Amino acid sequence: MTDASTSVRVRFAPSPSGDLHVGNIRTALYNWAYARHTGGTFVLRIEDTDRARVTDEYIHAALDTLRWLGLDWDEGPEVGGRYGPYRQSERQQIFREWTERFLAEGHAYHCYCSTEELEERRAEARKRGAPTGYDGHCRELTREQVAAYQAEGRRPVVRFRMPEGSTTFTDLIRGEVTFDHAYVPDFVLSRADGMPLYTLAVAVDDVLMKVTDILRGEDLLSSTPRQIAVYRAMGVPEAEFPRFGHLPYVLGQDGQKLSKRNGVVSIAWYRHEGFLPEAMCNYLGLLGWSPGDDREEFSLAEMAQEFAIERVNKNSAQFDMKKLEAINGDKIRALDGADFTARMTPFLQRAGLVGHPLNDEERRMVDGGAPLVQERIGRLTEAPGMLGFLFVDERHFSVDPESAARALQAESRPALEGAMKALDGLASWDHDAIETALRGALVDGLGLKPRVAFTPVRVAVTGRRVSPPLFESIELLGRDRTLARLSSALGSLPG
To answer: For residue 342, which of 397, 276, 286 has the smallest C-alpha distance?
Structure first.
């Protein structure tokens, strides 16, 4: 359908019956990048004909997820466009008109078979080793047969009359693909209540919305000959058919298709767990595509600049949480300080450590604490654990029991007493002066190795053996709170 004079139009068309998942967003990302790379149009269409499962709540959540990821759409809900409406639930009359036209022109027919009858005939076909798809029972009903079914009160579905022969098309990713129609039985266009099914609605909308290229998951490959048959019935010239590209599966670590069983698939979960949208787009972009030159990190803008369908791999991709976490850590470290602080703060608020909005003292602590952890965390959810000691009132401050058992023993007394003495009279309360004083008192004065000297102090002050840099933490915590915690730790020592 596309040539040098035709602008690319792609679409992302989810049916949000829950949170968007990894596979959904990888599809959206590739379509978005292809549109941006070619200067084309990215259309968002919501396929919500099943209103029992696709709710307004899920639709709004889907739009919010796309916005969070930075995948903006040129046409669609909340944006509008020439070919709207962009929710299929608002396009019912269009689908009904095409169904009636297909019936009138002989491309479709009413099917009165009950669910039980269909299953019974499938079972018989299985016994014979024959294809188990619809057997065409209602293709050529007589008037008398129709009248008998109607007298029984049966309400028919509308089936498409699949022509004999085969369908061959060139997949943008897989090359030439052929389907023998013997294995593509007549399919339902609309239910007995008139509600359209996927194959009717998607084909009609792709034509009417002037979609030129359809990038979607491999699981929909078998739908393609049905959609092409609908295009032909609509009278679309073959040269104007949308082109198809079927993306490889995303597999879990067990080699099976990614699902809740073998991996977390909801994008909302990753957002909640402190993954950056830049990291999600970067990593999902790598699940079947790469910019070449062994590059594994890039921005959305860079992906759009370099995206080419020819570089999409036809082989399945494997989801690797460790690799995603590594990319997320890199993206966190690449943020400028103010941006990192702004993104970290909601996680501190969610943990109940600071208010919303921050008061002046909380702002001082957040601004001072952010640089101490930015280089040390892989997820934003790690920030509350690392910085929590700064926001806890002394009456409620506690030391992690495991850390206390390993670092606050009787032999820790000299280090804690020496630290209190060195810090109590310190003239300048900054991290350089604090480091000089503690090293002089504990390492040079007492002859302790740094680990033996500073680990008890770290646990006493922060409550954990793993914490932000010790001397900067002490500076930010302040003299009075630091000395109070050292004193409390001394009082808790056994013996």
So the answer is: 276
For residue 299 the two structure tokens come to 């921005």
The one-letter code for the residue type at 193 is D
The reply to whether 127 belongs to the active site is no
Strands 157-160 and 188-190: antiparallel
Give the per-residue pLDDT at 1: 47
406 shares its domain with 384: no
Residue 292 located in a structural domain:
no
What pLDDT, on the 0 to 100 scale, is given for residue 400? 94
In terms of domains, do 369 and 450 share one?
Answer: no
CATH number of the domain where residue 366 is located:
1.10.8.70
Cα angle, residue 54 at apex, residues 49 and 56 outer, rounded to 5°: 110
Q: Which of 127, 260, 331, 421 is catalytic?
A: 260
Q: Which of 26, 70, 64, 14 is nearest to 268 (CA)?
A: 64
Residue by residue, DSSP assigns 435-487 as HHHHIIIIIIIT---HHHHHHHHHHHHHSSSS-S-HHHHHHHH-HHHHHHHHH
CA 183/CA 135 separation, integer angstroms: 11
Tell me, yes or no, if the pTM score tops 0.90: yes
Write phi, then psi, for 168 (nearest 5 degrees).
-125, 135
Amino acid 37: pLDDT: 98
- Distance between terminal CA atoms of the chain? 83
Report the alpha-carbon angle 157-160-166, nearest 5. 150
Nearest residue to 45 via CA among 30, 33, 28, 61: 28
Cβ pair 347, 383 in contact under 8 A: yes
- Angstrom distance (rounded) from CA 287 to CA 297: 13
Task: Give one DSSP letter per residue of 166-223, joined into a string.
Answer: EEEEEETTTEEEEEEGGGS---EEE-TTSPBPHHHHHHHHHHHTT--EEEEEGGGGGG
In a domain? residue 72? no
**161/237 same-domain check:** yes
Q: Tell me: do 123 and 222 sit in the same domain.
A: yes
Low-confidence ranges of the chain (pLDDT < 70): 1-5, 260, 263
